[in-house]
Amino acid sequence: MSVHVKPSSNMVDIRSQNDSEYDKKFEQDPGHRCGTGASTPSSLSDYITSDADDSSDGRCAAPFTLRSIETQLVLTRDATPTDLREMVKRCKEMVMESAECSEERKWLVRRLIELRLRAQELREVSVENLLETCVILGHHLAPQKNHAVTYGPIYCDNCSAAVWTMLQSWYMCNDCGFCCHAKCLTATCRVCAHIVASEAGGYTFTKDICPERGLSAQLYRCAECNASITFKAAWIEPRLCDYTGLYYCQRCHWNTTAPIPARIIRNWDMEPRKVSRAAAQLLEILEQRPVLNLEQLNPKLFTLVPDLSLVKKLREELQMIKRYLVFCPNADNEGLPWRAGLRSHMVENSGSYAIKDLIDLQNGTLIEEIRAAHDAMRKHVAENCDLCRARGHLCELCGNDEVIYPWDAGSFSCPECSTVYHRACWAKRNHHCSKCSRIQKRLALNQWQGDGNLQVSTQIDETKDILNLKYTLYCAEGPSVNYIISGQCYVCLVTGEGEGSFRASIT
């Protein structure tokens, strides 16, 4: 609601009068000077009409005793905040030196108010210019003025002081959560943890647990801000980061605790340890990223942790079930497999893990999620969907009519052609896949019939085992050699001589 105040009738616009008229009026009516009229300017721009215009002159005249110093408090359009601070300071001194309830003090107080209003306008303009996203050392710092925070107090990552979110202007990085006051922007010396994680591709320390080098290797200085630290003074006590093994000052190390990846991978130790602010932000970013390949980092962990081997088995079965679901329109309508209530990387592959996965595995949450998704996806393929069920397999070794799938406990999938057999039938045939044999025979027959240099005097029956037939090869460039049928002469391939042409006869 805006209130419009009608100017008092006793205010004089001296711009419409010349100096002589003003002097006569001043001498005749000294009480006419502005000492009682109230002023509520809506904007200081109403007072500024030229390059050097005294805003008080538009409202009341300066007392005669202040004419000599009036130029020191002139308000101009190009006045800087520094100039305004100097004029405010000078005006306050003059107010204190003037007599109480005098016309001089009243005029000075009015001028002081106008100067402060102008300073406030300049601050608002500068704040509007500052309220833009700033990029510093990879941080995308977005302004958070008048931002209400409900999850706890906020502290500046540069000065460690509290941030009054409703009163102060402050910034927060959109990528790593780095927070700082607006006045502390220039003091930022920490590279954005999101940039560090992206460049490293994951965790830097996964083999060595707390690779401490000693404070002397750091020249007794903080690893981040380069501040001097020593064990002799309590107020600058060095603090060790359990992730990087480096020492930090109290401003860069707030005793924040977090699980250490190296301790989890090597010792299956989930206990949180004290880390620096930079390490805490990095670990928070990478906590849910599947960047750990446990098969390469520590394969013995699957033997020592039974639940981990069970999760590995379930994830491998999920990969088999996914091959059915990705081609099923009914599964897509049901949101399978991507919206099965499971973390996306659990469906995409079976080898990568996140720190969050290992922590949830320890408390039993992860196994419940995987089992629920596994049961829902398996039930869709084996029971609910006719299209997926029609893609099942029949064991051609025993001729049983039972439909089997690769993830069944009693079935085995050929690693070459993915044909599914009963595990017992596969063992009886000495791990020999009949489909792979047929494929090899067809390839060998096509290669034998398509070679124009072969002269064969007899007809080969398709039912014969071509791979066991031997041919006598007569190479035009070398001696004869017994050789399984192929596209070139073995001797020519080894020596690099000749074209490798030959004729063959069945032995």
From TrEMBL:
Residues 138-192 form the Phorbol-ester/DAG-type domain. Keywords: Metal-binding, Repeat, Zinc, Zinc-finger. InterPro entries: C1-like_sf (IPR046349), DEF8 (IPR051366), DEF8_C1 (IPR047983), PKC_DAG/PE (IPR002219), RH_dom (IPR025258). Transmembrane segments: none annotated. SUPFAM superfamilies: Cysteine-rich domain. It comes from the Eukaryota. PANTHER family: DIFFERENTIALLY EXPRESSED IN FDCP 8 HOMOLOG (PTHR12326:SF3), PLECKSTRIN HOMOLOGY DOMAIN CONTAINING PROTEIN (PTHR12326). Belongs to the DEF8 family. This is Differentially expressed in FDCP 8 homolog isoform X5. The lineage of its organism: Eukaryota, Metazoa, Ecdysozoa, Arthropoda, Hexapoda. The gene is LOC107220446.
